Amino acid sequence: MDASEVSKKIIVFAPHPDDETLGCGGTIAKRISEGYEVLVVVMTDGRYAFLNVLDIDSDPTPEELKEIRKEEVKRATEILGVPEENLIFLDFVDGTLETNEEKAEEKVAEILSKNRPVEVYFPYKNDGHPDHRAACRIVKNSIRKSGISTLIYQYSITHKYARIGPIVNVVFNLFNQRMVRVDVSKFLLIKKAALKEFKSELTAISSRQHKPIINGVKKFLNNEETFHTEK
Fold first, then answer.
1. What's 5's DSSP letter?
2. Residue-wise pLDDT tens digits, 94-151
3. Binning pLDDT at 50, 70 and 90, where does residue 40 land?
4. How far apart, in whole angstroms, are the C-alpha atoms of residue 222 and residue 225?
5. How far is residue 169 from each of residues 1, 27, 136, measured CA to CA in Å?
6. Could you tell me if 138 and 96 are in contact, meaning their C-beta atoms sit under 8 angstroms apart?
7. Could you tell me which residues are beta bridge partners of residue 15?
8. Is the pTM for the entire model greater than 0.70?
């Protein structure tokens, strides 16, 4: 990624509030330090995380969790260097991207056409969560429809085939030169601070809760962030 041209835009698409920080928080901070403007588009509201993972539907309710997660992502992205006016919420209900792909494509294509980013980041096609796979299709289709020329970087949160999928991808991509590794070692402390803002996922915030939604984020705090690219 050549940073010789500054004052250009990058757009990061996050299916849920936190994916942008987990998947490419270090790269966001790095690119901002290099003079790029970064926009973060949060596609769903993440309201059903407690219900889906912990079977908790009150304290907090899905509606309450929606607001909690929105405030968390605002604080996290601010730490990464993204001003609040560059944070866009599409507000699709958590888990509904697959059934709203056409509507989402319209919104995403409009954002892309308006901002004409030089780089676009979004989840990998084989990520485990259906919202992530839908986000991948939505953004790729929107890029094609908008007719913009941009570099594509796909980040992976949890592979669909968790045990063997990442290994297969690494081997495959070694021969196809489709993986990009970004050195974010100088920005790890910033990324770590940003991740701490997602208290609803990393700590117990409910009286009904016996464990956090995410057990540690160590695997997301490496010196390099890895992205799948396309030729």
1. S
2. 999 999 999 999 999 999 999 999 999 999 999 999 999 999 999 999 999 999 999 9
3. very high
4. 7
5. 21, 21, 17
6. no
7. none
8. yes
The full set of domains in the chain, from first to last, is 9-228 (3.40.50.10320)
Dump pLDDT digits (tens) for 186-225.
999 999 999 999 999 999 999 999 899 998 899 999 999 9
Alpha helices in 34-61 (DSSP H): 49-54
Q: Name the residue type at position 152.
A: I
Mean pLDDT rounded to a whole number for the chain? 91
Sheet of 87-92: strands edge to edge?
87-92, 37-44, 9-14, 119-123, 151-155, 224-228, 179-183
CA distances from 87 to 20, 68, 91 (A): 11, 16, 12
User: In this structure, what token pair is assigned to residue 53?
Assistant: 């993972």
Closest CA to 60 of 42, 78, 76, 72: 72
Residues pairing with 182 in the sheet: 225
3-state helix, strand, coil in the chain (%, to 5): 45, 20, 35
3-state secondary structure of 222: coil
Decide: 48 and 228 in contact? Cβ < 8 Å.
no
123 exposed, middle or buried (CB, 10 Å; 0-12, 13-18, 19+)? buried
pLDDT in tens, 59-88: 999 999 999 999 999 999 999 999 999 999
